[in-house]
Amino acid sequence: MHLLAEKKYISFDAAIDDSNNAALRSVQRFLKKSGYARVAHKDKTLLLAPANDLARAEYVHKMTSSDILLHRVVYMDESYTHHRYSRHNDSLVNPKDDKYVKERHKGRRLCFITAILNKDRTVSDEERTPKQAAELLLDSVDSFEGGQQKADYHGVFCHEYFVNWMDTLLQALENRGLAGCIIVMDNAKYHKALPESTPKKGSRRANMISAMKEYGLDIPDNATKAILWIILSILKPT
After folding, report:
1. pLDDT tens track for 15-61
2. If you average pLDDT over every residue of the chain, what do you get?
3. Is the pLDDT of residue 153 over 90?
4. Integer CA distances (angstroms), 197 to 79, 162, 212, in order
5. End-to-end CA distance of the chain, in Å?
6. Example GO molecular function term (predicted)?
7. Region 128-145: what's the mean pLDDT?
8. Three-class secondary structure of residue 92 per DSSP
9. What's the mean pLDDT in 86-109?
10. Residue 237: its pLDDT value, please?
């Protein structure tokens, strides 16, 4: 609550109990309306997993390095909204307002994906031209109607769709004369899937040898399938 006051989203006098309690009740009503619930965690706290902690530290280190400043950064993400959603419905409700408003059905689920290009940080704000400014890449926007279930959303954003959309993003950057950009995305499964031709542990030995030749790897003489897989699994990206 104090963070909301610091960011000037709400205003109250912490020294006055009535003002403090009224603000607290308003925030609680807003959280409840937004779908949050109070839950007893039984002495459990939400902590960041060590692997995620290391990944975050590595990301921050890379994104704050001097080398990054020489590249334009592109942030991309996908999400969905409902066609009857309105941000005005998220405002705080006056407790004295006794008018009952029937909730409407959320309606169709609209999925969308797009990218945002960061500003050119090698140029000062005073000298930066419109082409060097940050922008929403409108030619990367794609939106469509998805299913009503959560599984439908993840089913639509599959690896095949993402690869096709990535071609659109790369073309948008090329149209702006940009190269060597750093594209930032989350670790969604469909962002990092491997091609269907990637050998698996159960693949035939001949297919493993074919893949190693394609990758330019040395093939040991009379290597068994198990040995070939050890070599491939070490080099296989995760």
Report:
1. 898 988 999 988 888 888 877 777 666 666 567 788 888 988 999 99
2. 83
3. no
4. 29, 18, 12
5. 41
6. nucleic acid binding
7. 93
8. coil
9. 60
10. 65
Q: Which residues pair with 143 in a beta bridge?
A: 112
Positive or negative, the Cα torsion across 129, 131, 133, 135? positive
CB 157 within 8 A of CB 113: yes
The full length of the chain comes to: 238
The Cα 111–Cα 143 span in angstroms is: 5
How far, in Å, are 21, 133, 159, 180, 210 from residue 173 at the CA level? 51, 14, 21, 10, 35
Q: Which amino acid is at 18?
A: D
Give the tokens for residue 16.
């006055």
Please name which of 142, 143, 188 lies closest in space to residue 165, comparing C-alpha atoms.
Answer: 142
Least confident range of 61-75, 85-99, 152-166, 184-198: 85-99
Cβ atoms of 20 and 13 closer than 8 Å: yes
> φ and ψ at 73, to 5 degrees?
-105, 135
Cβ 97 vs Cβ 126: under 8 Å = no
Q: Coil, strand or helix: which one is 182? A: strand
Could you tell me the two tokens for 108? 């169709």
The three-state DSSP-derived secondary structure of 183-205 is EECCCCHHHCCCCCCCCCCCCCH
